[in-house]
Amino acid sequence: MQGFSAIYIIIDALDECPMLNNERKGLLHALRHILKAAPDSLHVLCTSRKEMDIEKAITPLLIESWGAEIDLSTQRKALDDDIGKYIDSILEDDEYDTWGNDFKEELRNALMEKADGMFQYVRCQFENLQKLSSMDAVRKALRDLPSGLDATYDRILWSIDEDFQPQVIASLKWLAFSVVPLEIDQLAEIFMLPSKSDDGFDSMPRLFLPRMY
């Protein structure tokens, strides 16, 4: 770190680090070690939902290092207002013209109740609702909204068609372990690589017209 006037480390969504195999415990331990030995030129920003193990590890460090905590839950009304505006902006799209104001209000209230301050939660639910073909189906989905982002991601993964699961798993592995960010066209190429060492190269599995949704 010598030779730099300022160094910034940003750890986003610390709570999404899995607890399995003590991965989160190891990360928190490393973070404590870094902060205790950090020079004045090092600045660290962590974002996270409130979880007991993270709060227990981070709070003493804030005191020792003169750090600051920004608790968005104390600004919950402003946050909920912003999420409400986000929902309204989506519902203004022509795609929802036939839904009617009363139904839109019903949907808005249901999402606001479950969002728990998370824009990503709302975005994921809209992606699911857009696939439904009737108000009855939407109402049923609203009655069965998942609790939190973890449950939302679980539902998304479990709903993937069985035929596409190998492709999804392969894509996630490449995204997780690639040393550089991958473009969608590059991901389309990976399916031509042999999945087993004795398989030959085959261009047939390459995706048609790869695109983001």
From TrEMBL:
Domain Nephrocystin 3-like N-terminal stretches: 5-49
Pfam family, one: NPHP3_N
Alphabetically ordered keywords of this record: Repeat
Record keyword Repeat present: yes
Family annotation (InterPro entries): NPHP3-like_N (IPR056884)
The protein, known as: Nephrocystin 3-like N-terminal domain-containing protein
Classification of source organism: Eukaryota, Fungi, Dikarya, Ascomycota, Pezizomycotina
